[in-house]
Each structure stands twice: as structure tokens, then as C-alpha cells.
Amino acid sequence: MGLESWLQEGALTTRVDEVIKWSRKNSLWPMPFGVACCAIEMMATLSSRYDLARFGSEAIRFSPRQSDLMIVSGRIALKMMPVLQKIWEQMPEPKWCISMGACASCGGIFDTYALIQGVDNFMPVDVYIPGCPPRPEGLIDAVMKVQELVAKEKRLGVAS
Amino acid sequence: MDLQQSAYDLVRARFPDQVLGEGIHAGQRWVDVRRERIVEILTALRDEIPFELLMDLTAVDWLDQGRPERFSVVYQLYSLTHNDYYRVKAWLPEADPSIATASGIWQSANWGEREVYDMYGLTFDGHPDLKRILLPDSYPGFPLRKDYPLTGHGERYDFPKHTR
Amino acid sequence: MAVQRPMRLPMEIEEQEEGDLGSKRMVVNFGPQHPATHGTLRTIIEIEGEIVTNMELEIGYLHTGFEKLGEFRTYNQTVTITDRMNYLSPLCNNVGFSCAVEKMMGIEVTPRCAAIRVILYELSRIADHILCVGLQAMDLGAFSIMLWSFIERERLYDIFEDVTGARLTTSYTRIGGLFRDVPDDFADKVRAFLVTGRKTLREMEGMLNGNKIFRDRTIGVNVLRREDALSYGVTGPLLRACGVPYDIRRARPYLGYDQYDWDVITEEGGDVWARYRVRVRELEQSFRIVEQAIDRLPDGPINVDLPEVVVPLKDAHNAPEGGMEGLIYHFKNYMFGHGVRPDPGEVYFATEAPNGELGYYLVSDGTQKAYRWRVRGASFYNYQPFAIMCRGGSVSDVVSGLSSLNIIAGELDR
Fold it and tell me: Which regions of C2-124 does DSSP assign to beta strands (E)?
């Protein structure tokens, strides 16, 4: 008895939240903020051999208004930080951020006057990827971790 | 033709009172000159040798190294015709670190001098657009000077913090 | 004809009269975050309809402070940070730096080391040029060619990973030699790559050479004249596309380039099409050099036999069998105040990197850290004439021209 007995084969029931979260995590559109060497590894991940498109990230949107996952790949210099913050503000909610590589996460090997020692000092970051540069498998793992974060959200519409 | 010898002979013959000395290391020669007539020296080298390319323009800070002046502006010249390099170094005192611009002779000096101004604070008289090139316009201080610390004076923490 | 100079861009637009919208002349910002700028480049373009009347370039969005950092690192440590400058061909930076320090100290590397450095240098040049051609095609709409070039780069990354341990940040050379010898199957892997690389290059040429869209968007676009190129200090494929046959590998050979049989490539025209042809033909020459070098790869040691520069092998004379003296003799290289210490002096040494002349100006004060480390980045001087090259063209030509310059922001801003 119950609703399932009235439905045809191949239909299932679940909550609206779960459907939205499932579709959101399988179609994360990245905004590649590619700046330096990590950008080359990110481009390699988006290319044929490692193919991030398998995870739903087919549409690489360089426009922040049309994306929901920002991948900060590369060292962020003094001049670039305001640009990064402006692009982050332009992305609509819900949005997530991956800090790719050692330089974006903590300044990396460059402890100098001109480099931001980690973008998480000034911006919220969800996943960090260590490496200089991280292997493409590392970036794929980070995207999968973001997918887990999306699946665990409590309230829709606002990234927790 | 020994290009480096001819270049030195030209500078020595034409501007004998401007030459402070010459040097050699690893088979490469250079000439140290005063800054007063640098434009004429470089123009003569460009036209008569000829040195078609100004390969690089940079500066070195000789703080506490026992040199008579603190800054040296280094011009790396290359001659396509004779296939050899030559170096000209102009010396600037700490109290008044300015020199005439070479951007009227070679256009590559335009950005080279902006970078030297950005990193060392040396001014180039007559430069069409002398402003910072690599650091933000409002950056205080000149990083490549020897008395400037590697990690700066905290400018890299001076941004607003965005939270969710 | 006189050398063209850059003009200052008037940043304020004059007051418009009432009723006149003045929509013809606009100032448009292009970058620093834009899909068509390769890296963090910003240009401010003044356009009249579709025609570019003036342009101002702004750089510095990736300025890291390499030159200051180099004054606080020993010479072998500095090799690790040179990778990050031109990150498309990191081995070229490593080799150039090591050669500069070796020239300053008067060290001659062993024949095997020189041959391996040449092979890896040319493989990095292939990686850089093939990516530049791929990105040029992608900017004009041919996306598949970029994917093909990435596949070839992945094959090269496999070779680099086997030899150096890393795909991109290789840090392979040391002062006086190399980090370690190449593995036994190196020659087979390189020869296998040459076969597939040549095939992919032929496919890419087949797609682009006769393609009307590609030709229309590149021939006559973004012309750089010879006088402007020389005055702006332009080197590399950009200079050779203007007809000047200047290649440091032929003019002032290093690492034994004069023993291989290859040609210096020049083209006439100085436009985007000429630069594309120069890069494609240089790829063929690089394949030739690698083939000859791998056939003639000599045996022998890879490091020079100078214990104060290169760490000696652990054997009967050194640690651990040599006792206390052997141990000291072995690790003295790493002690603070010891290691590679060139005599006081200075040197300027340049190699022919894929983008042009990559020069290192080193000033040593006798200690283990450089007193001044200056990198003459090819992209820095190649980018400056972009403002005059775009004048009179249309906005879409800006994109086409920028991708043909192959500006690497890491080398531009350091």
C-alpha cells in the first residue's frame, strides 16, 4: 500500500530538497579563476585525458554570473586580490570556492611582499587542494568533495 | 672585430671625463659611467657600433658594499650586426637618484625604466609616463632596495574580509 | 619610417553636449579576468565603433617578487623557483639559470648532461609552441585543436614525470649537472613521442593552413614592423616573423647546439599568420634536434667532478665508509655559508626560450646567495608593442593578436 503501489515501474519518490541537491551537485558549473601554473593543470583537468566534464562540469563559464563553483588556481598578487573579491561578489548564491594549490591556500613557496598568503584570509574557502601544482586527480577529488558538501546542505538557497 | 673593445674605445674617446672605470668577469666587459651625459653615450653606441637592441634595463642597489654611489642603472646592449653584448652602468647617488630617460633612444627602455622606478624608486627625467608598473599605484615603498624586508610592511594583509 | 611610440590614453571622456549621446567612442576594459586573456593581462581599449584607436596596457597582476626572493635563496634553491616563471616550459627556465651560474663560475658541463639538457629544452619548446598554436586556434573558434595539443602535452608530461619526478614544476637542473640521470627507457619514450607528435602536428596544420576563416583572421592582422620590433627589444618568434633571423642557438651556441643540423626559421609579414607559421616550422626543427640528440646521446657522468659545487656520490671516499672526514666532505655542500659560492662578479647569460631571449643577470658577492638576480623575461619586452600593433584594427583582432604573442604572465610580472 502507499503511494509507491500506484506508481509505474521506474518512478521513485523522494523529497524536493534531495532532488534539487542531487541535480545541483551533478551540474556544478565552475568559474575557473586561472591565474598561474595551477591554471595549466586545471586546463589539463578540463581536457580530454582527465575530463572534468564527466562530473557535470561541462560548461566552463568565465562569467561569474552564470557559475556556482569558483576555482582559484594560482598565486594571488596584491593587484589581483580586489579583482578576485569583486568576481566572488558577482557570483550568485549558492556558491562554493575551491582553493587550488599551495599558493592560493597559504602563499606556497612565495613568502614575499607581493603575494597574499592564502585567499582564505579574505574570502570563504570550502575545499583546499595541496600541491604545487596539484595533480589533476587532486582537482577531481576536490570537486567530488564539493559535491559531498552540496549533498549535505541543510537549507536550500544558502550555502552553509 | 672585438666589439666590446670597440665600444669601450668609443666611449673613452668621445666622453673621457664621463668614464669612471671598466670591468670584466667571465669574458664579459662593461663600462662604468657618470649619469650626466648618459643619453649622448647611449645614442652614440646605438648609432655607431650599432647596438640595435636594448636587451635589458635594470638596476642594482649597492648599499653598504663600499661603492662610491649607491645605485647603478645597468643597460644591456646587443648588436645584431656584430652579434655581441655590451654593458653600460651609470651610477646614481642615494641623495638624488635620478637620471635622464633612454626611452627616446630605444622604446624598450619605456617599460624597463618604469619597472626600475617601481622596484627601486629611481626617477627618469623626461620619461613619458613614469608610474608604477608591477605593484599597485598606491604601494608605499620600493621593494628591491636592500633595506626593504622580503615580507614587506604588511601591505599584503590590507584587504577587507568577506564572509558568507 | 620612424619608430611608433605608445600614446597616453585619455582616461576621461570629454563632456558630451546635451542631446548628443556620443555612443561612437567608448573606452572598454579587457581583463584581467577574461576568457580570452591568457593569464592576468589587462588592456584598456579606446574604440570608435569597432576600430581600436588607442590602447593602454596594464600588467602586474601576477607580480610575486621573484627577484627579491632570489636574493634570499642559495643558487640550487633558486632553481626551484625558476620553474614558476614561464610555467608552460619550466625546463627552459631551469636550464637557462643553471647555464648562467655555470658561465659565471667557468664550469663546463659533461657531454651527457649537455645532451640531456638540449633534449629536455627542445621538448619543453615543443610543449610551449604546440600549446600556443592550440590556444591561437581556440581563440578563433577551433576548440578541438586545443584539445589535441593538450593530449600531446600529456604525453610530454609523462616523459617529464619519468625523468624529473614532476609534471610541471620540474626543478631538474643543478649547478654543475642534473638532479639525477634519465631512466633506461628514456630513448624509447622520446622516439615514440616524436612519432605521435609529428602526426598531431600534421593534423593541426591540415586543419588550419587552408582554413579560410583562420587565414582571414590572421593574415594582415596585428602587423609588427621590423623597426618597431628592434626598438621595442622584441625577440623570439615575434622577431623572426618580421624577417630578422636572430636565434641565440645559432648566433651564440650553448650546450652544443652547433653540432646538430637544424634551420633558423623566419617569415615575412610580421602578422599573426607569420607568427603561427614560425611556430609550426620551429616545431619541426625541434623534432629534428631531439631526434639527432637522442641518437647521439653520449654515455658518461652527468655531473662535473667538482666537490665544492656538486655533491659527490656516496662511495668509499665519502660518507658513510670514509669515516668522519668522508661524512664532513659529503655534507659540507649543504652547510650554511658553504656550497655553491661563485667569485664576486657579474654575468648576463641568455638562452633562446620559446618566447624569445630569456636572460639572467646575476651579481655575486662571493656568498652562497646571489646579491642580485635579474630575469630578463621575453614576455615583458614582447608585450609592450602590443599597444601599437592593435591600432587601426578591430576589437576581434585584439584577441587574435594577443594569443599569437604567447604572453606568459609569470614571466611578464615575475
Answer: 25-30, 42-48, 51-58
Among the partner residues C246, C347, C350, nearest to B26 by beta-carbon distance: C347
Cell numbers at residue B66, please? Answer: 663600499
C199, three cell numbers: 602526426
Domain count, chain A: 1
Contact A80 C40 (CB under 8 A): yes
Superfamily of domain C66-302+343-390: Cytochrome-c3 Hydrogenase, chain B (1.10.645.10)
Quote ipTM for the complex: 0.92
Q: Name the neighbours of B, counting chains with at least 3 Cβ pairs within 8 A.
A: A, C
Is residue A67 assigned to a domain?
yes
**What is the 8-class DSSP label of residue C369?**
B
B164 close contact with A: CB closer than 8 A? yes
> How many angstroms separate the CA atoms of C118 and C257, rounded?
8
- Contact assignment for A123 to B148 by CB distance below 8 Å: no
C150–A48 C-beta distance less than 8 A: yes
Instruction: Output the domain CATH number for residue A34.
Output: 3.40.50.12280
Cβ atoms of A125 and A97 closer than 8 Å: yes
Cis-peptide into B140, omega within 30 deg = no
Identity of the residue in B53, B61, B83 whose CB atom sits nearest the CB atom of C252: B83
Residue A124 lies in a domain: yes
Q: What is the pLDDT along chain C (414 residues), one digit of tens a residue?
A: 456 665 555 544 455 445 555 567 888 888 787 776 678 888 899 888 888 888 889 998 999 989 999 999 989 889 999 989 999 999 999 999 999 999 999 999 999 999 999 999 999 999 999 999 999 998 888 888 999 999 999 999 999 999 999 899 988 999 988 988 899 999 999 999 999 999 999 999 999 999 899 999 899 888 999 998 999 999 999 999 999 999 999 999 999 899 999 999 999 988 999 999 999 999 999 999 999 999 999 988 888 877 778 776 666 555 555 667 667 766 777 777 777 888 899 999 999 999 999 999 999 988 888 999 999 999 999 999 998 998 888 888 898 899 999 999 889 988
Contacts of C231 in chain B (CB under 8 A): 106-108
Cβ atoms of residues C282 and C250 within 8 Å: no
Give kind and range of the element (H or E) at residue C375. strand C372-376
Residues of A in contact with B142 (CB under 8 A): none
Judge: A114–B160 Cβ closer than 8 Å, yes or no: no
Closest-CA residue of A relative to B156 is: A116
| Residue B152 main-chain phi, psi, to 5 deg | 80, -175
Q: Is A58 left (phi over 0), alpha (psi -120 to 50) or beta?
A: alpha
DSSP conformation letters of chain A:
--HHHHSPTT-----HHHHHHHHHHTT--EEEEE-SHHHHHHHHHHSTTT-GGGGT------SGGG-SEEEEES--BTTHHHHHHHHHHHSPSS-EEEEEHHHHHH-TT--STTB-S-GGGTS--SEEE-SSSPPHHHHHHHHHHHHHHHHT-SSTTS--
Structural domains of chain B, with CATH: 3-157 (3.30.460.80)
Question: Which of C68, C228, C230 is opposite residue B144, by nearest beta carbon?
Answer: C68
As given in the structure block, the three cell numbers for residue A35 are 591565474
**Distance in Å, alpha carbon of A107 to nearest chain C alpha carbon:** 10
Q: List the single residue in B with minimal CA-CA distance to C58.
A: B133
Separation between Cα atoms, residue B49 and residue B36, nearest integer Å: 21
